[in-house]
What does this fold into?
Amino acid sequence: MVSTATQIGSFTFDNCLMNAAGVYCMTKEELLKIEQSQAGSFVTKTGTLTARQGNPEPRYADTNLGSINSMGLPNHGFHYYLDFLSELAKHKDSKSHFLSVVGMSPAETKTILKTIMASDYDGLVELNLSCPNVPGKPQIAYDFDTTDQLLESIFSDYTKPLGIKLPPYFDIVHFDQAAAIFNKYPLTFVNCVNSIGNGLVIDDEQVIIKPKNGFGGIGGDYIKPTALANVHAFYQRLKPSIQIIGTGGVKTGRDAFEHILCGASMVQIGTALHQEGPAIFERVTTELKTIMIQKGYQRLEDFRGQLKYMA
Ligand code: SIN
It folds into this structure.
C-alpha cells in the first residue's frame, strides 16, 4: 500500500498535501471545504491582532505562469481562527491544523502568542515572517537581527509547537546565516517559501493589480526552482528536529514529489489551489502516488531528502 501520510512534530497527517496560507482560508466556510477535501490539513489565513481590510482591489491576478498578489493581510483577526480551530478540535475525526498568525509589531506578535499559549488550542502555529505586501512593513525574515531577537523573545515563554513561514532567500551566505539563527531555537518547522516579493506584471502598458502601483508577491510556476532551492538548502542546514514544509510552484504530483525529494515533510499548494479549487488535492495525491508506485516507493520516508547530485 502506497501512503502519502506524514508527520510534523508530534502531529500525524493522512496526506502530506494542504493549502498554503492565503488561499481558501479566509473564512470558516472556505476552511471547511479544505477540511472535507483530500488535503491532509489546512492552514488559516494569517490572523493579526485585530481584523484587517487589507489593500485596495484588484489585489490578486492570475497570469500565464502563476499569480501576483498584494492582499495586505486582510483577515478576520486571529481570534476568529483560534476559536474556529479550538471548536474543530472537539470533533473526534478532526484533522490537525495550522494557525497562521503575525502581529504588526513584535509587541503585537507577543500578545497574540501569549493568548494562544493561554488558550486550549494545542495544534501547530505558523508565524508568518514573510508577508511582502503591507506598505511600510518589510518582510521580517530578511532582517536577521530582528528575526533573531523576535525568536529569542518568543521562545523565552512560548512552549507550544511553532514554526515560521519564510520568504525565499537567494544567496548561499544568507542560507547559512538564516539557518544558524533558526538552529538556536526549538522551532518545529520552517515553511519555504512565501511568494517572491514585489514582482511586477504588466498587461499592454499597465500594471494588473492596484496596490503599491502594481508591485506584488509572485507565485506559481515562476517560483518552483527558488522554492526547491530553499527547501533543500534548509534541509541540508537545519537540525533534524526542525522539519521543512515545501511551498511554491506545486500544481502536479511531480512538483510535490520534487519538494519531498528536496526534504519537505509536508507540501502546500497556493496559486494552483486558487485556480483549480479543493479538488486539486485528489488529483495531485493520485499523481504523487502513481510516481511513487513507478519508482517502488511506499512511504515518503523512502525518498524524502534523497536528491541525487552529479559525481
Ligand atoms: C497577503 O495577505 O498580502 C499575502 C500573505 C503573505 O504573503 O504572507
